[in-house]
Amino acid sequence: MILWLSMFGLSIASALLPFLPIEAFIIGGAAARPGTTAAVSLGIAAGAGATIGKVIWYEAARRGVQSDWAQKKLAGSKIQPFYDRWSARMEGRPVFSGALMLVSAFVGIPPLLAMAAVAGLLRVPMWVFLPTVFLGRSLRFGLLFLGADVALH
Question: 126 in the Ramachandran plot: left (φ > 0), alpha (ψ -120 to 50) or beta?
């Protein structure tokens, strides 16, 4: 239980602070707790923590773009057409935005931190954002745990 809670907390921190690589902690977790069941459980813990961290980035971007300062910057800039184009692409297309988020969460390209902020800016629905990030991160981390477990044992 301590390892599970530690992995959960570390993954929140890693999601918020990109210089903290959760992958290093995953290798340590796999060494401390071998087995498929542990890998799945720890992958879910890490995925849940990462999702919470990315929701914070999502919300910061979503609320930040609504500020008077951001609206002034968008109003007369070259960014506005880009923002409008991507808003139009994402709005009303939950499968498209969900697929982008799932790929980013699982593969890491484009980086999930950036995609979480973009999703907040473009107001991707939370019902699309949460499950795709959680699924993608849990699968990624679970497979990393399994891979480290096989390599170490």
Answer: alpha
Q: Which band of pLDDT confidence, cut at 50, 70 and 90, is reported for residue 53?
A: very high
d(CA 117, CA 108): 14
DSSP character for 93? -
pLDDT(149) > 80: no
SS3 of 77, please? coil
Give the C-alpha distances (Å, rounded to integers) separating 130 from 43, 73, 140, 152. 16, 29, 15, 32
Supply the pLDDT for residue 127.
Answer: 95
CA distances from 30 to 22, 113, 136 (A): 12, 25, 19
Query: What mean pLDDT is predicted for residues 56-66?
Result: 90
CB 133 within 8 Å of CB 116: yes
Strand, coil or helix: what is 55?
A: helix
pLDDT in tens, 119-131: 998 889 999 999 9
For residue 72, give both structure tokens. Answer: 């002034």
Whether the per-residue pLDDT at 78 is higher than 80: the answer is no
